[in-house]
Amino acid sequence: MSAASAGKFQDHYAILGVDAKATSEVIQRAYSRLAEKYRPDNPETGDSEKFEAINLAYEVLSDGSLRREFDKLKGLDQDPEFQFTGSAFFSELSRGVNLRLALLCVLYDRRRLRPFTPALRCGSLKTSWRPPAKS
User: Fold this and answer.
1) Of 47, 74, 101, which one is at a domain's C-terminal end?
2) Alpha helices (runs of H) in 1-135, residue ranges in sequence order
3) Which of the 8 DSSP states describes residue 131?
């Protein structure tokens, strides 16, 4: 590993352009295609830094134990249990500033439990929040 990339987190799945659930065959094909394109002796598209990153990504993702460790580091092995969710939580905080606080609590939970994938779609927020039924 070069001194420039030492200590930096690299998403091996993104480097190879594969999904986190990709099979070893898909990873092998992606690696072969990218290694051929970026190998340093390729006069048109050679890039030694990209080639090094591709090799590291393949080394990690092709080894079962290294891949499991990487998935843990990335947070893919977690089964999150959100604390701030459900209609009871939102019914208590359903107006004005309290609604903003409720949203911040949900976003905090998401960031805490999934640090590398904290994004939250509006659709998933709508399904977790159903306003209380009017009496």
Assistant:
1) 74
2) 12-16, 24-38, 48-62, 64-74, 87-92, 96-113, 122-128
3) P
Report the amino acid identity of residue 44: E
Q: Could you tell me the residue range of the domain that residue 23 belongs to?
A: 12-74
Distance CA 90, CA 131 (A): 7
Q: For the chain, how big is the Rg over CA atoms in Å? A: 21
For the stretch 40-82, pLDDT in tens is 888 777 777 888 888 898 998 988 888 888 887 776 655 555 5
Both 70 and 101 in one domain: the answer is: no
**How many domains, the chain?**
2
Strand, coil or helix: 6: coil
Residue 57 lies in a domain: yes
Structure tokens at 121: 């779609």
Q: Model's pTM, two decimal places?
A: 0.52
Tokens of 44: 């048109």
Neighbours of 30 (CB within 10 A): 20
